[in-house]
Design brief:
The protein is an alpha+beta fold and 363 residues long. The chain contains eight helices and 19 strands. It has four domains: 65 residues, Substrate Binding Domain Of Dnak, Chain:A, Domain 2 (Up-down Bundle); 29 residues; 94 residues, no CATH class; 147 residues, Umud Fragment, subunit A (Ribbon), CATH 2.10.109.10. Strands 1, 9, 10, 11, 16, 17, 18 and 19 form an eight-stranded antiparallel β-sheet that branches.
Length: 363
């Protein structure tokens, strides 16, 4: 804190000189190597004696020597920038592969604990651009406004991906096309846009707001050392699970649910309650769902599994039973069975965006 700028610069210069010698020692001539070593020695002596004039002169001499041996060129700038970018990519890939992976909640199966993509149809115009920017940053909300330019019929809705993250829909009509920042499921479910509909000129095809799904970080590290806990909100792959369709382009989707059953657990649902090994499921997440206080509705009976209040299911070894908190609108283990242990990705750690209403640690 109290060290002069000149001394700090000189110490930094010494570190650069040592680094340069390590990198280039086998390529330097003996004369250049001796000149750098002598310059470093002189600068260290000047620093130990706290001789300002000598520090300045020796640092300047060493700096000129290094600049002579490593002239600044446009190639060196590009090489340095590329190295920085490459290191950043390697670090990001490493973190994503072994520690934290970002994941977007696509559906409403975990609502209201975690939000999927939600559309709000409206006939009112969108707010001014400043408010739109603010709502996008805080709420993850964007606005769409698609109005038919002529009398036409919608023939097809094609999904479009941009940068592997942003989902658009291509609306293909007989005479016109539209690119909409919304998924086909959102358009059909929330805005009743589907093939075959006829629109007249000036008719609103889709107008309103769309809240993006919660963006979460998944802890991929813990499950390497600690077994999953009942009640965890966890992410898993769906490959090799019968009954779950694979996307031809993106492959098997990732699901996020609450871990309701561990290997060996005996489960039963008697709405609105979930029973584990003969007792009501314990834990904050289960209690919140079973309270059935709006917007929670409790647990619903299943289809293939847990389909009757007196019917139980025992989770097999190396399998896990997954349930959505939005039980009445969740395609989960009640339909397709258990999640194989090999499919586990990690525990949902926190919502990092949007900043309302679920920002923070996931419970």
């Amino acid at each position: 804190m109290f060290t002069s700028r000149q001394v700090k610069h000189s110490r930094l210069l010494l570190r650069h000189a040592r680094k340069y010698l390590r990198y280039k020692d086998d390529q330097l001539s003996s004369a250049d190597r001796d000149q750098i070593t002598a310059g470093m020695k002189a600068l260290r002596e000047a620093l130990s004696q706290r001789d300002r004039e000598r520090i300045h002169s020796t640092a300047d001499a060493l700096d000129k020597t290094l600049h002579r041996l490593t002239p600044v060129t446009w190639e060196s700038h590009w090489r340095e920038n590329c190295e920085v970018i490459l290191v950043a990519i390697v670090v990001a890939v490493g973190i994503r592969s072994y520690f934290l992976q970002p994941f977007k909640i696509p559906t409403g199966s975990m609502q209201p604990t975690l939000n999927g993509i939600i559309g709000y149809p409206s006939t009112a115009p969108a707010p001014n651009i400043l408010r739109q920017i603010g709502e996008f940053i805080v709420l993850g909300r964007n606005y769409i406004n698609v109005v038919s330019r002529e009398d036409d019929q919608l023939l097809e809705i094609q999904p479009r991906k941009m940068f592997f993250f942003f989902t658009f829909s291509q609306l293909i009509c007989q005479r016109q096309k539209y690119l909409v920042y919304a998924s086909p499921d959102t358009l059909s479910h929330d805005f009743t846009v589907f093939p075959g509909r006829i629109y007249h000129r000036g008719d609103i095809i889709a107008r309103g707001a769309i809240d993006t799904g919660d963006q979460v970080f998944v802890d991929k590290f813990s499950y390497n050392f600690v077994k999953p806990h009942r009640g965890d909100v966890f992410v898993f792959r769906t490959n090799h699970i019968p009954g779950i369709r694979e996307d031809p382009e993106a492959g098997s989707p990732f699901y996020i649910k609450r871990l309701a059953g561990l290997p060996g657990d005996m489960l039963r649902i008697d709405p609105p309650f979930l029973y584990v090994n003969g007792k009501k499921a314990e834990g904050y997440g289960f209690a919140r769902v079973m309270s059935a206080k709006p917007p929670y509705r409790g647990y619903a009976l299943g289809h293939e599994y847990l389909s009757q209040p007196d019917r139980t299911f025992t989770v097999p070894q190396h399998g896990y039973f997954a349930l959505g908190d939005n039980s009445y609108n969740s395609y989960d283990s009640r339909y397709w069975g258990v999640v194989p242990e090999a499919n586990l990705v990690g525990r949902g750690l926190l919502v990092y965006w949007p900043f309302h209403p679920h920002w923070g640690l996931i419970r």
